[in-house]
Amino acid sequence: MNIDSLDPSIFGHTDQKTWLKLVERALKGKDFQEALVSRTDDGIAIQPLYERRRDYAPLSRQRADLPWTVTQRMDDPDPERAMAQLSDDLANGASGISLVSSSSPSAFGIGMDAQLPIFSEVLAAASAKTTTLRLDGFSSSVAKMTAASIVDGGAQSLHLGLDAFLAAENFANFSSDIKYFKELKPAGTIVNADGRMVHNAGGTEVQELAVMAASLVGHLRLLEEAGLSPEAALAATSLCLSADQNQFITTTKMRAARLIFTRIAEACGVANPQPAHLFAETSYRMLTRLDPETNILRNTIAVFSAGVGGADEISVLSHSLTHGIPDPLARRLARNTQTILVAESHLDHVVDPAAGAGGIETLTDALAERAWDIFIEIEGQGGLAKVISRGRLAAMVAEARASRIAKPIVGTTLFAMKTERPVTVLGPLGPIAGGMGLMPVRLDEGAER
């Protein structure tokens, strides 16, 4: 059959009312809401059908003309091994490096020690070899050493990753540190507005976005005290979120973050702000210990979702991280998860491909609005620092984790293997650090057979 010769008019026009009649017939008395309407962990209803949104504006990456940065974690506790991995990563697809401190809440039992004598060599090598370098969980002194390397011809784009809400004891002189970085004028960002800890500790998407917003506003105040204009302060901030295997939730969460950023910018008197730099890291809490190869599938969906949601930079946690320090194969798979989606699937070629889709637009708006409500509550209680110190953030996240309805986990509670395959790692995990009074908790903990 030649499908080009088919007349489109043979398919009769159907409106929503007609569709609902057909659905009711198919349900045979079952309740529509129970059978076809699902809800997010925040209680947001997801309908089975939406009309296309006509009044929409695409939410693009900061540089829509460039692919997102394929960032590889430099987190091996063995510095010499990490140096060898660095060269391999950059020669085989990585376009950015995230240097992770062992004390970072995003280290998950691995990471590098800045106190080691060889660390300065690691820092210099990382800065010299990559065009984009991100620091995760390091002190302001390490950030200063890294920023100084820019003057000497180091990485072209630098994200220093300072976070006053994660390690306040290291930022007693935060304003003076910011002034130092301001004078150097590095290309990139200085501080993180980070919601990843909320996600990995079991919080909801709305809570993660709300904490990101509260962190953003808190840092904007500190940057203003250091003499940065609102425009410069916004440009100096990197938004950080987790990406998990829930495709539509992850995509809309990334888009909602951009809506929130724009709303805060407008409140600061900045009209038409430059799009925020949005960094996404695949979820730790979704990783499983049993049948860890299934984590490769989860990571793939997470990267796809973050990429089409408009992330500027994505980092993938290795599938074997739950067992120990990832080996070269695990690192290669983490890297290739991104490079294949960019180089072969060309996901970076379309700006906000979900724009205008009724379900995506509706869920984006709902996440942004509910996150804004919680953000206003946090501000009303004195800001993020006070909410953390009083234990209110930890209590809010703990309540969300306890009330989450457990879902089947492929490889753990669903289609579990009778005999687990051996997993190769380079060494055991160290202690796992928390942040904001939160500790990461995987979804499979307690669900393992």
In terms of DSSP E residues, the strand content is 5-15%
Distance between the termini: 52 Å
Order of secondary-structure elements: HHEEEHEHEHEHEHHHEHEHEHHHH
Q: Which stretches are low in confidence, meaning pLDDT under 50 for 5 or more residues running?
A: none
Neighbour order of strands in the largest sheet: 3-4-5-6-7-8-9-10
- Count of discrete alpha- or pi-helical segments spanning 4 or more residues: 15
Q: What's the story with the biggest beta sheet?
A: 8 strands, parallel, barrel
Radius of gyration: 22 Å
**Helix content estimate:** 40-55%
Shape: globular
Structural class by helix and strand composition:
alpha/beta
Number of strands: 10
Output mean pLDDT. 92
Layout of SSEs?
Blueprint: H1 16-27, H2 32-36, E1 38-39, E2 45-46, E3 69-74, H3 79-91, E4 96-100, H4 119-129, E5 132-136, H5 140-151, E6 157-162, H6 174-184, E7 188-194, H7 196-200, H8 205-225, H9 230-235, E8 237-243, H10 247-267, E9 277-282, H11 294-308, E10 313-315, H12 328-343, H13 358-380, H14 384-389, H15 392-403
Parallel strand pairs: 3-4, 3-10, 4-5, 5-6, 6-7, 7-8, 8-9, 9-10
Antiparallel strand pairs: 1-2
Helix pairs in contact: 3-4, 4-5, 5-6, 8-10, 8-13, 10-11, 10-13, 11-12
